[in-house]
Amino acid sequence: MGTLTVGCQRHRVPADELVVLIEQPPRSIDPRSTATSYDLKLSSLAYGRLISVDDPELSPRPDLAQRVDEVLPREESGRIRYDITLREARFSDGSPVTPEDVAYTFAGVVDKKTGNGVLRSRFEDSGLVLPLEVRGPRTLRLTYAHHHASALTDLDFGIVKRGTFESGPLIGAGPFVLSGPVGEVTRFTRNPYYYGGPPPMRTLTVRVVRDANARLLSLVGGSADLTQNTVSPLLYDAVDRWSRPPNDRLRMQTGHSAIFFYLGLNNEDTHLKDPRVRQALLLGIDRERIVHTKLRGTAVLATAMLPTFHWAYDADVPGYAHDPARAKALLDAAGYPDPDGDGPLPRFTLTYKTSTDALPVSIARVVAAQLAEIGVAVEVRPYEFHLFLDDVKKGNFQIYGLSTGEVAEPNLMKRYFHSHFIPTAADPNAGHNRMRYRNPAMDVLLDAGEREMDREKRRQIYSQVQKILAQDLPILPMWHIDNVVVMRREVQHYIVWPSAQFSSMAQVSKVP
What we know:
Elements: E1 17-22, H1 37-46, E2 51-52, E3 61-62, E4 65-71, E5 80-86, H2 99-110, H3 117-126, E6 133-134, E7 139-144, H4 164-167, E8 176-178, E9 185-190, E10 203-208, H5 212-221, E11 226-228, H6 236-241, E12 250-255, E13 259-265, H7 275-284, H8 287-293, E14 299-301, H9 324-333, E15 348-355, H10 358-372, E16 376-383, H11 385-394, E17 399-406, H12 413-417, H13 440-451, H14 455-472, E18 475-481, E19 483-488, E20 491-492, E21 509-510
Helix pairs in contact: 7-9, 13-14
């Protein structure tokens, strides 16, 4: 896996073009219908957002909004109001961004005929009152029927010029302008009216290359400039060779990430329904060794879904360092003694489902080998991703391994751990609590965290959430894998955000 040979090369990328490689094509960058991670990343390049979470602590910060002011006092009914003052920004056709454009975009997002179900449900849950109230040439008011703590974070989506949903193409105020279809190759040109100044790159080309080796070869050969989170750690040695003299063509840049890798456990399973068994499994896995050997040290061990740098992270949550002796004692106490001591017979057998990608399979096999040392046999079953995810949604698993998207808003934990979000046969997409975890106290806390507006009080609520999860372990928290960017040596000024967004491409330049 670590050997690369440079063969015939495509044309070299021009100095005023940036070519970015991704592994899967976007489906749509229309702000109403973005669904995948790449949909969102590319959408924000063309359509400026009111609020961005491209921040070292994942806190919401203004983008097209110049400022956001809460209108006090809050009503006893629970209503809250925000006045948003727009910065002096222009769309890519030169027209100004106005409150009417924002109101128009919101109307399109929540329209059941055109809106994305995820975004629409987000605003329905938030209690946002529509239509929005335009209060001046640059000011509008958002009113919520009840307290909703993630109201500002929810505004992280693109704004379009009014009228363009009907007439097309969509006109945005982001740093780039979409200049063709979205798909295997998606092309942008710079927006000369971008409020931050026109990007240094005249053209941005986002190309899909599905093979990891081919992506790296494209960078080495000069037919591409940059890729983020698509180079397997199994190829880091090869990257290192091309980053040192006499090759010296590439460089790798890493940054903290909010991407969370975990092992989901079926909490209704005969063996796994006992928290002592779940604790024993985590104690039996040497996560530090896996991070060192399989991920080349580019990850931080997790105690919970929130990364260590997040404002709501609780550093006092107890961890589970590798401790086989304690793991065996917990399994004994749970009623699963080793039937033959150091012999070959297991205490019980579990299946571990994963995708067929090389790295997840490799990690699953290491986990299986480590759990065998505490007497738990694990059968690794790789599946094509769509089949694998289908089984996970249906609850047809004992253990599975998956990563979340970037966890910026702690309210996301509600979709993973609240009993309301357990998928059903009728609605397998009802939520991410695929572990079938039920805890009434957790439901109460997650509901409270969603409605509490005071950040310090929210921090205390999510501290309790993290402590309960560390005890119950409905999932096994593994690590937060770093964002890793591999780029040509000449690429400059790219910022690796914890959110893994592409917004810093607006500042990227290339030097000879």
